[in-house]
Amino acid sequence: MTPWISPSILAADFSRLGEEVNDVLSAGADTIHFDVMDNHYVPNLSVGPMVLKSLRGAGISAIVDVHLMVKPVDTLVEAFLEAGANYITVHPESTEHLHRTLSMIRAGGAKAGLVFNPATPLTVLPECLHMIDLVLIMSVNPGFGGQQFIESSLAKVERARQMIGDQAIRLQVDGGIKTDNIGAVAAAGADTFVAGSAIFGTSDYRTTIAEMRAAITRAG
Ligand code: DX5
Ligand code: ZN
């Protein structure tokens, strides 16, 4: 699958969010990663569906993948479907009925993602493969940007890749990805790379994204 580099808006300057999103897209980003935190499932608070709706209203038509770090999750799935999410990714811990939540996402016209925290085993993945379009392996504990990449995530990405095989399901990794480790993440089998601080924390988004893409190509 074509590799995607997805800047996480969590590290953007929120006072200029629309401009920041347009800047990373014109600098070569493939999609936008939209982190939603509720100060309950994770100890931080970010943005909700109204913000995505405003970005859509401002003409941003890029693929947006919404990473829901919220509990309960179903009401926000509905709201983000309405707001224009392309992918909606949920944690198995955030819903009592994962099958229902994943079904709602696809029934609402979006692609469904399933995300695993560093200590969450992949045990439910085989049961869900037929209902998802993306698997996300967290390489940090969710809640904050700018954390250190957890090295054991690489072996987990390899295990997820084995389970996915060549099915049309994206394998995304999120947390602590930088120009110097993105190659190893690609080599482990990922095709979709979230990076927040490593992109928005640099002054030249275009150069950073190009360096990341070169490292992915070298790993392939
Ligand atoms: C963490 C979020 C990540 C985060 C990544 O809870 O899900 O998407 O923004 O940020 P960096 O790339 O700075 O680790
Ligand atoms: Zn995320």
Strand order of the largest sheet: 1-8-7-6-5-4-3-2
* Assembly state of the chains shown: single chain
Q: How many separate domains? A: 1
Distance between the termini: 11 Å
How many helical elements?
9
User: How many strand units?
Assistant: 8
Large-scale geometry: globular
**Annotated CATH topology:** TIM Barrel
Reported CATH architecture = Alpha-Beta Barrel
List each distinct ligand once. Answer: D-xylitol-5-phosphate, zinc ion
Report the average pLDDT across residues: 98
User: Quick one: biggest sheet?
Assistant: 8 strands, parallel
CATH class: Alpha Beta
Strand residues, percent: 15-25%
Radius of gyration: 16 Å
Low-confidence stretches: none
Quick take:
It contains nine helices and eight strands. It has helices spanning 17-26, 49-57, 74-83, 98-107, 125-128, 153-164, 182-187, 197-200, 205-219, and strands spanning 4-7, 32-37, 64-69, 87-90, 111-116, 134-138, 170-174, 192-195.
How does the SSE layout of this entry go?
Elements: E1 4-7, H1 17-26, E2 32-37, H2 49-57, E3 64-69, H3 74-83, E4 87-90, H4 98-107, E5 111-116, H5 125-128, E6 134-138, H6 153-164, E7 170-174, H7 182-187, E8 192-195, H8 197-200, H9 205-219
Parallel strand pairs: 1-8, 2-3, 3-4, 4-5, 5-6, 6-7, 7-8
Helix pairs in contact: 2-3
Bound molecules: D-xylitol-5-phosphate and zinc ion.
